[in-house]
Amino acid sequence: MYHIFDSDNYEEYGVSRDPDLPDGISFLTGKIIEESLAEPLEFFVDNPLDIPLADFTELVIPVMSNKLVTLLKNAGIDNLQIFRALLHNPDTGQNWTNYQAVNIIGTIACADMEQSKYIDAGGAGIILVHFEKLVVNCKKTHGALLFRLAESPDKILIHEKVMGEILRHEPKMKVLFKPVNLS
């Protein structure tokens, strides 16, 4: 029912440097960013001229193509805070303006910690958990379509309905969907 929605961490190219943000601003908390940010947010990328950018790329801040953002919204996603982005390759001078920096609003604590296998880097079992095997308790998600996992906020979970809509419209979309186990 849910998948981890991710950029392909094994892609050779993508964002090589996020923009500098004011102190206290984070795209990982699942909270609305109240402060205004100077747009476009400039990201450095390392794609050669002959290798197209993925539709979803990130270091810390999610960056999505306009096409992917539109597909998410058309599939019913309404918890995105969007900032214009400029992706710039300093080696080639190439720029891309058809991308958005995306803040995903909302976290849900839905990991079944008894069935999951994880390393508790934070020591409290609440945040900074690195999952070797993630098991999601679907009852705790209440059918949410897209959210950050509260126990590990760098993980974005997407409902299979939305994933299916994306792939139905763009079967070659350059994003990664990793299935999770359910309890």
Biggest sheet features? 6 strands, mixed
Approximately how much helix is present in the residues? 10-25%
- Give the termini separation: 11 Å
- How many individual helices? 2
Number of beta strands: 15
- Oligomeric state: single chain
Strands of the largest sheet, in order across it? 2-3-6-7-5-4
* Rg, nearest Å: 16 Å
Structural class: mainly beta
Q: How would you sum up the global shape?
A: globular
- How many domain regions? 1
In short:
The chain is built from two helices and 15 strands.
Structural write-up:
It is a single chain. Strand 9 and strand 10 (129-133) form a beta hairpin. The mean pLDDT is 90. The longest helix has 10 residues, at 160-169. The protein is mainly beta and 183 residues long. The protein has helices at residues 66-74, 160-169; strands at residues 2-6, 15-17, 41-45, 56-57, 63-65, 80-88, 95-104, 107-108, 117-120, 129-133, 135-136, 146-149, 152-159, 176-179, 181-182. It has one domain (2-109, 136-182). 10% of the residues lie in helices and 37% in strands. The chain has two helices and 15 strands. The strands form four sheets. The chain has a six-stranded mixed sheet with strand order 2-3-6-7-5-4. Strands 8-12-13-1-14 form a five-stranded mixed sheet.
SSE blueprint:
Layout (H helix, E strand, L loop, with lengths): L1 E5 L8 E3 L23 E5 L10 E2 L5 E3 H9 L5 E9 L6 E10 L2 E2 L8 E4 L8 E5 L1 E2 L9 E4 L2 E8 H10 L6 E4 L1 E2 L1
Parallel strand pairs: 3-6, 8-12, 11-15
Antiparallel strand pairs: 1-13, 1-14, 2-3, 4-5, 5-7, 6-7, 9-10, 12-13
